[in-house]
Amino acid sequence: MTESERREPEPSDDRRAAEGTDERRANGPVIADADLARRRFFRDFAGELIRTAATVAGAASAIQRSSARAAGVILNPAGAVESIAGERANPAAGTAAGFRTAFRMDGDRLVLIDQRRLPDQLVEYSCASAGEVAQAIQDMVIRGAPAMGQAAALGLALTAHAMRDNTPFIRRATLRGGATALVNARPTAANVRWAVDRLMARFDELGDPPDDGHAVADVLRQEADTIVFEAAADHERLAHFGLDLLPEMADRPLQVLTHCNTGPLACGQFGTALGIVQVALHVGRPIEVFVDETRPYLQGSRLTAWELAQAGVPYTVLADSAAGWLMARGDVDAVLVGADRIAANGDTANKIGTYPLAVLAARHGVPFYVCAPLSSVDLATPDGSAIQIEQRAGEEVTALRGIPIAPAGSRALNPAFDATPAELITAIVTEEGALRSPFEIGLRGAFDASRARKAHPPAYAGFVGDEATSHAGAV
Ligand code: MRU
Fold first, then answer.
1. Would you call the peptide bond into 458 cis, given omega within 30 degrees of 0 as the criterion?
2. What integer is the mean pLDDT of 195-205?
3. Cα 408 to Cα 242: distance, rounded to the nearest angstrom
4. Phi, psi torsion values for 402, nearest 5 degrees
5. Exposed e or buried b for every residue in 202-233, given b needs 16+ CB within 10 A?
6. How far apart are CA 143 and CA 136, in angstroms?
7. 238-446: CATH homologous superfamily?
8. Residue 23, Cβ density class (10 Å: 0-12 exposed, 13-18 middle, ≥19 buried)
9. pLDDT digits (tens, 9 = 90+) for 275-290
10. Which residues line ligand 1 (CB under 6 A)?
């Protein structure tokens, strides 16, 4: 890693947003009126991410004001004022907006946006335990590796809360059962096991089994909150490192191609590949996104297009199979994708169809960037051949949103992910910098850098508890 790749992004000096009323309903899957929800989205987007995160951290008292400026400041302290003031530097974009978060806490419930229903309806889906979150993950109510990891952590914390007055042995058995259900819900994503292991390690530190159920609940919730806050900070850093890699075009917007969905719906916080796009927009770097529709589940056309529309980023949806044609025309300056699991050697599992994109990018000399937090990296997996690839139901291929598109009885293959060999990856963009081959050395160094950074006070605990206000700018 070069010095410039490792440099610290500019610190965000203002993370506060006002407390606001949250009119959303809490219990059960709720179908919101689409127009109302959309209006609410535009009204709330700017403060929502920070407000949600602060609520998650139990630091609502730290939140002092909400404005579009807050989102801009997070993404680009220097440029926030201009971009929000209306002198938008990206004339191609629509109304500057932001992304909304994939989940929020509401009392003893974790409320998810039901991603199965987007873009037609903004629907919320409520969970009260690790088991319910595991089911939601399996059913793709929430999907995307980083978001699943954060939701899993909060789900396990909810189970600890619900079990706080049970006997220690029953509590331990229930928590372990919930942890197993979460880890098995979708096996390819590294982030879920990573998050669950973090919480269970804290649990194990408290005793065998720990007696004080209230202490268990508090500690697990604190660890889950920390995971969420770390993600917000890490995505911001990652986005800045990613932006540094992208060329500035002399006479036209930068044109990037992306696959699947890597915005907040997939990542819980700013996002990875789409986080970079969002930062580009906010710093006035004209950018346009080609969005692979992402067969068979259509995360690109349903979710990425929806998020980019909300964010005011110009985009064009295309069939996955059109990517080669587009690259051959010279219309793609860079490919940005996420990751579900990155092996120690840099081989990367991501949404099915990522590997052929990487082959095409190599063929056409287009840089291919994997953008992922270190929570998606599993050094215990030596290479791509060791990554378990989730196989999903054939109906996702033979039917489109319930409508058959193949003769009845057709067999179908539906691997949810493929593994892209490291040699096809130009750089892996993480919160510790953009890493280049040989990836194993870079990844290990990035973990060291992350540990050192996070060990440094005030760290993330600053958002938790009564002292939150004084540390509100720390993350
Ligand atoms: O099956 P999904 O929708 O969970 O797959 C998601 C992806 O493949 C994403 O690209 C990946 O999780 C990275 S999200 C930053």
1. yes
2. 98
3. 45
4. 90, -10
5. bbeeeeebbeebeebbbbbbbbbbbbbbbbbb
6. 9
7. Translation initiation factor eif-2b; domain 2 (3.40.50.10470)
8. exposed
9. 999 999 888 999 999 9
10. 143-146, 260, 262, 266-267, 272, 299, 338-340, 350-351, 416
